[in-house]
Write a structure and sequence with these properties.
With 268 residues, the chain is of the alpha/beta class. It has one domain: Rossmann fold. The chain has helices at residues 2-25, 30-45, 74-80, 85-90, 120-133, 152-163, 184-187, 193-198, 212-220, 257-266, and strands at residues 51-52, 57-58, 61-64, 140-145, 169-175, 178-179, 182-183, 203-208, 228-233. α1 (2-25) packs antiparallel against α2 (30-45) and α5 (120-133) runs parallel beside α6 (152-163). It is globular, with a radius of gyration of 18 Å. The two termini are 20 Å apart.
Length: 268
């Protein structure tokens, strides 16, 4: 229980740090970022990525396919000492910083440049397949948005992963039911995501993407001889009530002083 409380505190801390940065930058993608912060907290702090403190790097790889949300990992990487505090402090204020709204592999701790949606699973599949050929035990974790299921390249990669039994591959779908255009139900229905991916012979499970015990339970399920896919039900903009479930917060919007004050109060 103590550890769960610690994870909750870290998630709130990271949301606050990112919110304050977006205020400085006057840009960002808080809806997509805040929906998956809790998942990232578990992956990093429950040691699924296996941090090597001597090399200052992770043995397992995390790919955030929805590149507009990659900055969700920056405050966490700063805490691990992978991203320099100087880079974090200079981001949006003064001087040079490696940090950008979209992630790229020039940033320490970011393994792939992403943002063109629908390619993250393919890159992850390639890395998982290469690890198999090289007889490496490293695991690959890929976080995608459900909007990336509109991309044919995603399904091609799933087919490849299934065919080659890439049980070192773990895909997490951040299902907040919203894309830039609005509700996925009103755009192009995706149901049933679970049955579709099970038909590709994946080990599929579901979790509450804001419940740490639920996330851990799904991550701990054995892959067996198959690749794994976790369907994480989330809320876009989680943590700030004026953003929650609002498609417009895919992008940054101007806020009044009162809205900023109330949002910071919620993040205490």
């Amino acid at each position: 229980m103590k550890n769960i409380l610690n994870l909750k505190k870290k998630a709130k801390k990271y949301r606050k740090e990112l919110f304050e940065k977006f205020l400085l930058l006057n840009e960002g993608h808080p809806g997509s970022i805040f929906s998956m912060i809790d998942i990232l907290v578990v992956l990093y702090h429950e040691n699924y990525l296996n941090f090597n403190k001597y090399k200052k790097k992770f043995d397992n790889n995390l790919l955030i396919s929805k590149g507009h949300a990659t900055s969700a990992s920056y405050p966490i990487l700063k805490e691990f000492g992978v991203i320099k505090k100087k880079d974090w402090n200079n981001w949006g204020i003064k001087g040079k910083s490696n940090l950008r709204i979209f992630g790229n592999n020039a940033i320490p701790g970011i393994d792939v440049t992403s943002g063109s949606l629908g390619h993250g699973v393919g890159v992850g599949v390639g890395m998982a397949y290469a690890n198999k050929l090289d007889k490496k035990n490293n695991k690959i974790y890929v976080i995608i948005s459900e909007g990336e299921l509109y991309e044919g390249s995603t399904w091609e990669a799933l087919l490849f992963a299934s065919n080659y039994k890439l049980n070192n591959l773990n895909i997490i779908i951040d299902i907040n039911s919203l894309i830039i255009l609005g509700s996925t139900q009103n755009c192009m229905k995706l149901d049933s995501i679970k049955e579709k991916i099970k038909s590709f012979n994946f080990n599929v499970s579901s979790c509450d993407g804001h419940n740490f015990k639920s996330i851990i339970k799904s991550l701990n399920k054995k892959n067996g001889s198959r690749p794994k896919c976790i369907l994480a039900k989330t809320i876009k903009g989680k943590g700030i009530s004026l953003m929650e479930g609002k498609p417009k917060w895919h992008y940054w919007n101007s806020l009044s002083e009162k809205e900023i004050k109330n949002s910071l109060e919620e993040l205490k």
